[in-house]
């Protein structure tokens, strides 16, 4: 093909393979014309071996159907488009052993970047093996980034989970709520633990009490089962249930309805993340907004080494009050309500 275009092998290679070295535009067009004429396409596998990497970004999420992870993935994809990279996504099903298996498989495909976005467990027995795989991957030119807190020493996008949950608790006690329960993930899941700790701290500061904590899967069905358990045991005056993420809150609100109760009236519900669907619920869900697409964009910028100082700072969250947590009338207000 180089002969057909009348250029050197090096020029033909640079024209076709996206080299960072500038090629004369006339020569580049001649190469492209010759490639079309000869029906030539680059051997991507050979390129990967030669470069030690590809133009792909490997993204691991817990569950691509979960709107939290799908929004993070959308952010990674949008940022990858800007960098002319391609994203491949795999789901771990929240299984650490499966995650380790996928990392090993993806290493063999030589992605330029590997992003791990599944929630981390502090006591995961696979952590040492996972770290060894990632160190070997970086030693061969790859770059790793994590989403959410981890004890592993890699680039990490950190979300203000504790601060956001504490702010939410303060806002809710300001609305007049005093007696709370929480539905959260299994103990040891870093994101869930940070949010529960922040919520406790906010309640203590605002005069509320966390009377019960139910742990279940960090999913919609986990939220449903957690709320069902609370209702079966008797709410006993609990005014508001905090679910540690929005998909758990969606499940919790379904369980409230299935029990013949009304969310926001018989028991208030709040979540965390502000995925789009919660604005369409009846009633719309009070939550803590996390800019999830921005989280994905930051993860890729960190991994590529093009992050700004702002990218390296914790991602800020914001409390969003909606109708699932209406203001409670105080005793004094109730006394002033005229009777018929």
Uncertain segments: 44-52, 331-340
The whole-angstrom Rg is 25 Å
Number of strands: 11
Count, helices: 14
Tell me the strand percentage band: 5-15%
Mean pLDDT: 87
What is the spatial order of strands in the main beta sheet? 2-1-3-4-5
CA(first)-CA(last) distance? 93 Å
Q: Structural class of the secondary elements?
A: alpha/beta
Shape, please? elongated
Please describe the biggest sheet, giving its number of strands, its sense, and whether it closes into a barrel. Answer: 5 strands, parallel
Helix content: 40-55%
SSE order: HHHHEHEHEHEEHEHEHEHEEHHEH
List keywords for this structure.
340 residues, alpha/beta, five-stranded parallel beta sheet, four-stranded parallel beta sheet, 14 helices, disordered C terminus
Write the SSE topology:
Elements: H1 2-5, H2 9-16, H3 25-37, H4 44-51, E1 56-61, H5 67-82, E2 86-91, H6 96-108, E3 113-116, H7 127-139, E4 143-147, E5 155-157, H8 161-174, E6 179-184, H9 190-206, E7 209-215, H10 220-233, E8 240-243, H11 246-258, E9 268-270, E10 287-289, H12 292-304, H13 309-312, E11 318-320, H14 331-336
How would you describe this protein?
With 340 residues, this protein is of the alpha/beta class. It is built from 14 helices and eleven strands. It has helices at 2-5, 9-16, 25-37, 44-51, 67-82, 96-108, 127-139, 161-174, 190-206, 220-233, 246-258, 292-304, 309-312, 331-336, and strands at residues 56-61, 86-91, 113-116, 143-147, 155-157, 179-184, 209-215, 240-243, 268-270, 287-289, 318-320. The strands form three sheets. It has a five-stranded parallel beta sheet, with helices on both faces. A four-stranded parallel beta sheet has the order 7-6-8-9, with helices on both faces. Strands 10-11 form a two-stranded antiparallel sheet. Helix 2 (9-16) crosses helix 3 (25-37) and helix 8 runs parallel beside helix 9 (190-206).
